[in-house]
Amino acid sequence: MLPRADPNYNRLFKLRPLVSYLNKQFGKIPYSRDLSLDEQMCSTKARHILKQYMPNKPHKWGYKLFVLCDYKGYSYNLEVYTGQENYPKFNDIDIGASVPLMEHLYDRGILGLGTVRRNRVPNNQFPDEKQMKKEKRGFIAERISSYKSTPLSITTWKDNKIVTLLSTYAGAEPKSMLKRFDRQIKTRVDVDCPFVIKEYNRFMGGVDLLDGLIGRYKIKLRSRKWYIWLLYHFIDVSIVNSWLLYKRCRHKNNELVNYTLANWRAEIGSTLTSTGVCTPTRGRRSNSLEALMKRINRTRPTHIPTKDSRTDNTGHIPRRQDKRGRSKNKDCFGKFHTQ
């Protein structure tokens, strides 16, 4: 354990070996083409410095994690947010996209898409927020540019709120139509929707799907140790990942999925509790040589000292023993407890 003043000090040092091992095992599965990175909460109200408050989450208090998932909910990598003590210059860390991030991914052959803050867009020529609110629902504005030979498409769309997305492969075209309820005319109307919104909604729900699968049958044991809550969360993630891999293999072989998530967890628990336990069998005892040797070699309690030593009519000198024990004399139990 490093001292707290050391720049390499990690608040997660108790769980760091486990997190590294899980990421190594999860990453052995071939990565899907469509991945999503989002925040996840390990719900708790324990008093700890790592606890975060996120008002937009179903569980507002807990430990925050960054999780890399595919659109089906399988987790390839996870990291616990431990604060900014080791990175003081990054005082505005956010999960949203940015132009340098898209350029960094594009140079490595990765196409990106994500929401972006309007003040992070350089040379922003979009209508301001007041003007956008005056536009009708479904209004779309798009700007196409490049940054260090990286093609960028920035799209703003007005729905219930104003949404701005940044992408290196998707834009406003081709548009599609969505149904929205209009309060003024009391009916559903058609609203324009850009292609980038459809792509975002299609592949961005992997972490939310993982949260839903964990929340159905999560471990609800309580503990006074803060890291035990994270340990239970890692167990839940591992179980859900194993079930998703089981489903993937069954679908690949055109076979039916015989286990639901509840049955899968029950089967894992039954297997772990029955490992190493010899279940008695009905019927007559086996007369095989192996079974006979097991019965003969079974250790039984013996007298200390042995009966031969006690009855050989020879005076014995006490001898020092490495293990604790007490001498046992014949018929001493009744006299000791009755007199």
From TrEMBL:
According to the record, the residues making up region (Disordered) are 300-339
Q: What keywords tag this UniProt record?
A: Membrane, Transmembrane, Transmembrane helix
Report the transmembrane regions from the record: 226-246
Q: InterPro entries of this UniProt entry?
A: PGBD
Residues forming the PiggyBac transposable element-derived protein domain are 6-86, 98-243
User: In the UniProt record, does the keyword Membrane occur?
Assistant: yes
Q: Does the keyword Nuclease apply?
A: no
- The Basic and acidic residues compositionally biased stretches are 328-339
Skewed-composition ranges (Basic residues): 317-327
Alphabetical list of PANTHER family matching this protein? DDE_TNP_1_7 DOMAIN-CONTAINING PROTEIN
Q: What is this protein called?
A: PiggyBac transposable element-derived protein 3-like
Q: Record the organism.
A: Sipha flava
